[in-house]
Amino acid sequence: MIRLYDYVLSASCYKVRLMAALVGVKMDHEAVDFHPGRAHKSLEFAQLNPAGTLPVMVDGAMILTESTAMLVYLAKRAGSQWLGPDDAKSAAQVQQWLAFSGRLAASLGMARLHDMLLYQGDIDAWRKDGHAALRELEAALTERRFAGGDWLVGDAPSIADIACFPNVALSQDGGVSLDAYPSVRLWTRRIRALDRFIEMPGIHRLHELSPAPKVA
Amino acid sequence: MIAQQVLNEWYPVAMAAQIRAGQRRVTQLLGQPITVDLQKGAIVVTGQGGALHVTEAYGHVWACPGAPAHDLFPIPEASEPGRRLVDVGVVRVKCSPLRAVENFLDIAHFPFVHTDVLGAEPHTEVNRYEVQIREDSDEVWATKVTFYQPQAAKSSEGGIVTQYMYRVAAPTAAVLYKTCPNRTDAWDVIGIFVQPLSEELCDVWPWMALYDDVSPQAELIAFQQMIFLQDRSILENQIPRLLPLDPGMEIPTQADLTSIAYRRWLKKRGLTYGAQMVAA
Amino acid sequence: MTPRWTATGLSQDLPKGVVMAGHWMGHDLAVWRSATGRLQAWNDRCPHRGMRLSHGFVRGETLACIYHGWVYGAEGGCKHIPAHPALTPPATITVTSFACAEQDGVIWVAPADMAGSPPAVSGVQPLRSVSLTCDLAAVLAAEPALHGQDILRGTVQMDGQGHDVCLLVQHNPAGLTLHALSGLGANKVAASRWVENLRRRAEMKVAA
C-alpha cells in the first residue's frame, strides 16, 4: 500500500489526500509532527527526505517528495482522465498549471503559514504575490468560462485543478480574500462539489449539497 | 488604559519545552511587547517595565503583567499518572481572545463546523444542561452537557453520546472535560489557553491530558489541531470583532447558557479587554 | 448622500443556490440566489453571534449561517434554529434586508426603501468583474475615452477596432470594483484582456 507521510494542516499534503480520495486510491497515512514538533526537520526524517519537506510518498522502492509528482502518480495509477487530454497543447497546459501551483504555495501558502503558525517572512510580499497569482488564475478561468469550460484544462477536472485548489481555497487563512475573484470562487465550489471530495480544516463542507433534515 | 483587574490575571505566553530548548520568544501581551527566554536556567518574561510574574504549568509559561490576584488555576488531572500530556502547538487567530474562549465553550456549532467528527445533521439538538458560577473559585462551570458525536476522539470507534463539562478558569483560559472512550471513570481533559496579543489578535495554545496508550503523539496533535483550525475561519469572520457584553446586538438561546454566563462573569469582574460594552 | 443603486456583481457570477459577499456604501452584504432563482441582499451578519452570512449555505428558498446553522427565509426572518428544532424562532430574529434587483445581467443593491429601478444599461453585455487597488481618478486618467462617475461609458480600441465598453463602479473597503460590460460585437476574450490592460495602466499611474 502507498504510504503518505502527512500533516493534517499542510496544503501540499492535502493536495495528495484529495487526489487519492477523488480517484479512490487508499493510502496508509503516517502523521508527522510538523508543528509544534518540527519533526520533518529531524535527523531521522532526513533519512527519508533530506529536503525536510512534507508530503513524502513511499510505494515500494519509490520515494516521491514533490506533491505534483504524487498527483501524477495517483492519476496514472487510476488510469483516468485526471491527467488531462492527451494532445500536446493540453499536456503542456497541465504542466504550466502544475508549475503555477508552486507560485500559489510560495505566496498564498506562505501567507497562511505566517498568519496561522507564526512563520517569519515578508508577509506583504507574499500577499501581493498571492493577489497577482489569483488575478492570473481569475483571467484564465474567466476566459475558459467564455468558451463554456468549467476546468483549467479540457472538459473535466484534472491534476491541474487539484494542484492549484488547496492554496486558493485556503487563501483567507493568510489574509487574502477571494471576494474579488468570482470565476475562482465558482471554480472552487465546483471542486468542492465533486464526487468523493474530502475537506480539510479551513475548507468547510458544502452543507447545501445535503438536503435539510426533516424537522421532527 | 487597561483595567488593573485585567493586568492582575495570568496569561499563557509560550510553550515551556520550547523555551527550555533555548528558543527566545519575542511576542506581545495585552498590546505590550514582551520577551520570553531562559536566563541562568530559569524562564523569564520581560516587558518594557521589567520582569513580569512568571509561573509554569500544563506545558506552558504563564505571565502576569500586574500583581497576581491569585495563583494560577489548578488542573489536578495534569498530575495523574498514566495521562498523556499533549502540547498541541500555537495557532494565531485574528479575533478577540474572548471570542476564541467563547467558541470553545459552544457545542451547537459541532454539526456545521466539525461535520462528521464532533457532530452531524440531523443530530443538532442541544439538550438542557446546567451552568453555575462557582463562588469559591470564581469560575464558570457548565455540567451535564451531552451531545451525539460520530467520532468524538482519536481513540473512538463509531458514534457515541459524549458527556461534557466546561470550565472557564481564567478570562482567557477554559478547560473542557469529555467522556474518555477508554475509561468509564475518568474524563479526558482539553484546555484552551489564549494569549491576548491585542484586543483583536490572539495566540491560542491548546493542551490536553488524556488516557490513550495507543495513538502516536503526532496523531493526537493532528486531531486537536484539525478541530481548532476548523473554528479559525469562523472566529476571524464574526462581527463585531470585540465581544459584545451588553445585550442587543447578539441573540442567545438556551443552548448558549455557558456563553451567557461567561459574558456576565467578564462584565461583573471588569475583564473587558477584547470586549465592547455598548450594544452597537 | 442620496441613496442610489450600486452594482455589486454580475448575474452570471451568482448561480442558483449560491451566496456571495456584496457591498453597498459601507455596508457588507450577503447576496444570494435561492433554488428558484430569487435574489436577495442582506446585512452580512447573523444576529446570533455575528457570523458573516456570506459564508453560509443556501438550501431551497433559505440561507443558513455556517456557524450554528440558523436558517433564514424570505425577507430575512429566522425560520429554524437547529439547536432547538421544536422551537418556532421569535419574529424579532431577523436579518436586515436591502433592495436587490437584477437587470441587464447586473445585480444592483440599494437601501430597502429605495424607489424605482436601477439604471438601464443598453447596447452592452456582461463581461466580468475586476477589482483594482487604485482609485477612480486613476482609471479615468488612464483611459480618457471613458466618461461618467458611477457608470463609465466610452468607445475604446480592442483588437484594432472600436467597441463600446461600460464599467459600473462599486466602491468597497478593499478599493474599487468595476463590473465590466462590453459591446455586443466585441470578442469577449479581447474585451477581457482590454480590461486587464486598463487595470495595469491605471494601477501603474498610482505607483509612478
Report on the structure:
The complex is a heterotrimer of chains A (216), B (280) and C (208). Helices cover 50% and strands 8% of the residues of chain A. Chain A has 216 residues and is α+β, with helices and mostly antiparallel strands. Chain A folds into 2 domains: 2-78, Glutaredoxin (3-Layer(aba) Sandwich), CATH 3.40.30; 82-192, Glutathione S-transferase Yfyf (Class Pi), Chain A, domain 2 (Up-down Bundle), CATH 1.20.1050. Chain A has a 4-stranded mixed beta sheet, covered by helices on one side. In chain B, strands 8, 9, 10, 11, 12, 13, 14 and 15 form an 8-stranded antiparallel beta sheet that branches. A 4-stranded antiparallel beta sheet of chain B has the order 2-3-4-5. In chain B, a hairpin with a 2-residue loop joins β2 and β3. The longest helix of chain B has 19 residues, at 217-235. Chain B starts with a helix and ends with a strand. In chain C, the strands form 3 sheets. Chain C has a 6-stranded antiparallel beta sheet with strand order 1-10-9-4-3-2, with no helix packed on it. A 4-stranded antiparallel beta sheet of chain C has the order 5-6-7-8, with no helix packed on it. The model of chain C has no long low-confidence stretch (mean pLDDT 95). Chains in contact: A-B, A-C, B-C. The A-B interface holds A 7-9, 31-33, 35-37, 39, 115-118, 172-173, 175, 199, 201-202, 204-205, 207, 210, 213-214 and B 15, 18, 87-92, 94, 112-113, 115-116, 121-122, 124, 203, 216-219, 221-223, 225-230, 232-233, 236.
